[in-house]
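SAMPLE LOG
Freezer: B-3
Tube label: C17
Construct: single chain, 183 aa
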Amino acid sequence: MTRLLHPAVLLALAALVAFGAVGCNRSSPSSNQTAAKDAGKPAQAAPQSVASLPSAPATAPQAPAAPPLPPPAPEQRMTNAQEADFDAWIVKAYLGCWNPPPQPAESDPYVAYVRLAFKRDGSLAKAPKLVNPPADPALKPQAKSVLQAVHACNPLPVPAQYRPFYEQWKTKTIHFNPQVAAR
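STRUCTURE (predicted):
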């Protein structure tokens, strides 16, 4: 005589089979270690009858997988003209803070090169670095005045049109030319 199974038992059995099939495909360090330990043991026998299976509680539906993240937006870049305008603006801003001492008459004009690192708000991220310190001790006051100008302008009020291009201006090397400052 064939015995029909109750629909709830069939549903529970289907859930167990589905869970078992899905669970076998999952890979995690703990399941891999357990599988390695149990590799030499004989497989356990399946339950003899459906009636001996515990009734499984209804499983909650799983949340759908999160959609993949969109690719990052391409970095905005200044055009060559925008970059030239920014460089002119930054030099003008620093020259406005610079009070160069008189150049020694017997020396060539000293053009200081200063490497700067900025935060997004225009303030200095670290101390300015004089790239070409003067060898002539008579030019040391010029070098010192350049560093004073950088500190006097800190933080630099970066105009709004340049803020989206921070990656392009977060480090800059500025030339302090006394002949340009004299104009």
